[in-house]
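Risk mitigation, structural track. In case the binding assays with protoporphyrin IX containing FE fail to produce interpretable data, a predicted complex structure has been prepared as a fallback.
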Amino acid sequence: MSASSAVAHNHHDADSHGHEHHHGHDHHELSFIQKYIFSTDHKVIARQFMFSALFFLFIGGFFALLIRWQLAYPGKAIPIIGNLLPSTWVTDGIIQASFYTQLLTMHGSVMIFLVIIPLAVGMFGNFCIPLMLGTDDMALPKLNMFSFWLMPPAAMITMGGFWFPDGMAAAGWTSYPPLAVINGPGQTCWLIGVFLIGFSSIMGGVNYITTILNKRTPGMTLFRMPLTVWALFITAMLIVLGTPVLAAALSMQFFDQFLGSSFFIPDNLVTTKKFVGGGQAVLFQHLFWFYSHPAVYIMILTPMGIVSDVLATFARKPLYGYKAMIFALMAIAFLGFIVWGHHMFQSGMNPLLGTTFMLSTIVIAVPSAIKIFNWLGTIWRGNIHFTAASMNALAFIATFIVGGLSGVFMASAPIDIYIHDTYFIVAHIHYVLFGGALFGIFAGIYYWFPKMFGKMLNENLGRKHFYWSFIFFNLTFFPMHILGVGGHMRRIYDPYIYDFLKPFQPMNEFITIAAGLLGFSQLILVVNILWTIKFGKKAPDNPWNANTLEWSAPTPPPHGNFTEDIRVYRGPYEYSMPGAKEDYAPQTKQDIPSEVEGEIVDESMFKAH
Amino acid sequence: MKGWFEWAYRDMLSFFPENVSTFGAQLDGLFTFVYWISVLIFILTYFLLIAFIIKYRARPNKKSYHFHGSNIVEFTWTILPTFLFVGIGLFSEDAWTKTKYQMKVPKPDVEVDVIAYQFGWQIRYPGPDGIFGKKDRFQMSKMNLFGIDSNDVNGKDDIIIENAQLHLPINKNIVVNLSTADVLHSFFLPNFRVKQDALPGKWIKVWFNGTKAGKYEIACAELCGSNHYAMRGEIFMYGQQDYDKWLDGKNKKMIELQQKQKAAELTLSDSTTTSQGS
Ligand code: HEM
Ligand SMILES: [Cu+2]
Ligand SMILES: [Cu+2]
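Fallback model:
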């Protein structure tokens, strides 16, 4: 005992925060602005990321519903709001083709750059890392604050085309030149905006890596970190290695677009805008996907980590194959850098490369499969408690299986010939990003909300939100596989000018209705959050009887997080130890009381695993 | 409501548009193969997921099994999918080399040039002489999308079809030289299972062999601007005789046109010489 507390005290001397906060003396009050707006407290920054991303979720969702309206009822005026929209967007309430391309571009950009990445990485990274590692804050709190505060201006600039007559960017979220380069000022804005978002990501990533390597509390070895932290650690490395390449690609495109250089423009393009020429259009795709394939893992690794933690907690069982899960994350991250060409099978790059990328891509499905099996292993012989959090986590597995399987179709280059750029891809994207990443994020929100805000979310509303989302998610996106098999191209303003797509109008109509209800279901989450913040029940310190360190902090954690010295004695997943009185064993507790009064569980007998 | 639920009760594979190319059957076969593997994996994993959710739902006084996993199990479920997935990859390789490798494109029976532009397709046949004029990238313009070299006599009689209608014979190896004058486009023939992006500055060989006469559609599959959706073209597949008839008609028209042009040029040059002489 005495040795351990000595270590804990050493830790405290090195660390400026400690008991002082608790007792309150020599600690002057922060002003409102320092506390809630330009705060350097990781928990406040996490909440800022959460609220801003949820706001953009509705903006992006609104764009999506306009797209869906057009696909179901081309040539019909948008109901209710149709006549309120500006005449550069709609004529007589009918969406214009040029606005449609802006919509699909901004829908993708907003959802990826302003919703999923800020939620998965910004929000959970900030909230979970310091708390789960038992430390007071990020290693670089000021950098952390900048990383959030770059987002609002960056978001505004990304959508800045709004203020120009030509409108917003309209070359897709992938922004392929030459189209992107000959487009107007909306595209320039998009390039600058996304560049800044990338910059914010890098600041976050650097901070996460530094914090994880340097600020773990005594006893928290790397292999005692919960999977959420591991996932964030690996995500941060992907960000730090990948995002600079995106920045390069965007800068080069900016030069082409704004200054007339020709990195991506070959000789003598027959367009009104003139260029010196001599460049290569596919070069951009290589650079873009070198970042953007890893970026899809930036979006999903953290949700995978969250799902692992949530399932272990609610199945009251150790995570199956803890180390295998970590190695699978590493394998996905490593392989993720050598598969980018699978987005370019039909791009006109040398087909020989198609063969290479087909094999690497197919191999990356293996660690994904390993993760599925380990999650199934985790709930096997468990004692599964169903809550909004655990149901979302289970839904993650269900949808990720479908998304992974559709990935295998596309990974085969010859199969991809037909389904590339069809709704099959759109189905895949949404199964992994909405069904996967977003359900994982929902699981995380339901799980950590009590700690973040000190109030228990309404479980009833949480379940309603889950059921409605899960049902309408599948009704919206599953039929899209079928559209893809029918040859229905993506990014099409009016599919029905093609005879072979005419029979799909009723199915598109069905999808649109389901999508509307899916969008509507998300309001339940917002109502739940706002209602809970105002009227919710106060949360106990450890409402789920979980092991990880954040649950040993007061609720909500004060500035500096922990009020007592903490030290880690075991891994994060020691649930249901035989002979123990409780079915959980917090990482901070040295002695686990036994079923037999007055005795202590001898953990050495399980160490072999 | 009619048709709303088609996706739910009809077999997914029945939604493919009719296949009318030789390798199309092989590609559809691959899709079907992966489809059945997926269905199998889907059933297996969903069965376990649902069974575990039901069987291991929380009950009072029950304790979970304290177990961290086993290396043998991890090893097994790493190796098995690896073999399966790599198998799918190797199995796919043949179809890929056959359809896309530029050096494996078969000797053309009919060769045409197709160029994409915002927003449409132009098609070029070699004309009565059967020889394409040389292409010169720097001569490309709105009036001459193919960049036909004005110094090459072989190019004078090339036939250019501006309304995106492609006419071809069945049971012949067709080679399309594909490029674009401006932004990226993608040449998509749903019924032939052909898709290839058109790259500016590069001519890519796309080949297929049609098996059934009829009228099919050409679509653009790569976002190319506001009117991307409107880049519809048509492809007419004929038996050899009908095709020859169509081609002869075109070639004759071209010969007539050239004669008319020559005559017009002659009168024009006559008048200029006289006016200069005075
Ligand atoms: C089993 C693992 C996976 C495999 C084998 C796989 C394979 C592929 C392939 C081959 C494509 C390109 C298809 C095409 O454009 O023709 C693709 C597209 C895409 N994948 Fe995956 N994928 C996997 C998992 C994921 C995950 C986990 C995510 C995201 C979290 C994801 C997100 C995307 C996105 C966003 C696109 C489309 C990008 C675009 O063109 O707009 N994929 N995937
Ligand atoms: Cu990818
Ligand atoms: Cu197009």
